[in-house]
Amino acid sequence: MPLDGLLTALREAQHVCVLTGAGISAESGVPTFREAQSGLWEQYDPLDLATPEAFLRDPDLVWRWYRWRRELVAKAEPNPGHRALVSLAKLVPRFTLVTQNVDGLHQRAGSSDVIEFHGNLFADRCFVESCIIDEEQDSAGGVPVCPGCGGHLRPGVVWFGEAIPERALNDSFAAAADCDVFLSIGTSSLVYPAAGLAEIARNSGATVAEVNPDPTEHAAGFDHAFAAKAGTVLPEILKRMSET
Ligand code: APR
Questions:
Q1: 202 and 90 in one domain?
Q2: Among residues of the chain, what percentage have pLDDT more than 70?
């Protein structure tokens, strides 16, 4: 695997920015958003469930789907790809991790200050006030309500058609524009604005690399593209960086 060029850039970098997508959690057994839904949920298209309209139409159905996803993800464990990023953060002066994933596996692996571009599956948010509700609400399996205003709670994820949280957007764009190396890992790079971060980094003079067994259309324009799994490439990068 021709890592030398990327390793040189990483060793010289003052700031490394990483964007991850569902692919980094694939080796933890978490199906990517687009993969076929299993069991009861096979009949549903995620796009018909992960929207404000779906929630207004049938909040109970949407909550049943998200509780199913929470159970699925809670059984998953961080994999060597997640853990390698925790180690990489300790080897560079400044490290920014942006994830499109809502599974919380980066945090469970030990990453801190994770920028969650699409929110977090395990957070509850008031549908009316938009505030995050920390304390667990007992909903007896139905639709939980906000202790503040009595409105419905919703999963704290960003649905299709909704804006990316402003802080996450601004911090991610600033990091992409400032970094010396940008790693795009396990994302199909189809969903904007996240998919635009690599271009911002490249236009700012950063070295840009992709890790994806199925190279994206952007790969040809990157400095490095590794058509391999994150759980293989990232530990190898860390091993080589730790050798010097
Ligand atoms: N290592 C690295 N990449 C992998 C691996 C792996 N082991 N396994 C799969 N991949 C790649 C796939 O080839 C694919 O290109 O991960 C990518 C996952 O793409 P998507 O399923 O489109 O997930 P993502 O890019 O994160 O989607 C972005 O769109 O689906 C919505 O809101 C959802 O956050 C998600 C956003």
A1: yes
A2: 95
Cα–Cα dist 155/168, whole Å? 17
Which residues are paired to 17 by β-bridges?
96, 182
State how far the alpha carbon of 213 is from the alpha carbons of 77, 125, 142, 202, in Å: 21, 35, 40, 21
HSE at residue 209, side-chain half, CA atoms within 13 A, is 25
Q: Which of 191, 197, 217, 229 to mutate to test the pocket of ligand 1 (most atoms within 8 A of CB)?
A: 191
Hey, what's the torsion of the CAs at 96, 101, 107, 113, to 10 degrees? Answer: 30
Same structural domain for residues 11 and 105?
Answer: yes
Catalytic positions are 118
Number of structural domains found in the chain: 2
Task: Give the CATH number of the domain where residue 48 resides.
Answer: 3.30.1600.10
Q: Is the CB of 75 under 6 A from ligand 1?
A: no
- pTM, two decimal places: 0.94
Residues 66 and 143 in one domain: yes
Atom 2, ligand 1: residue with shortest CA distance:
186
**152-179 pLDDT tens trace:** 999 999 998 899 999 999 999 999 999 9
The answer to whether the CB of 227 is under 6 A from ligand 1 is no
**Does 134 sit in the ligand 1 pocket, CB within 6 Å?**
no
* Domain, as residue range, for 193: 4-29+76-118+164-242
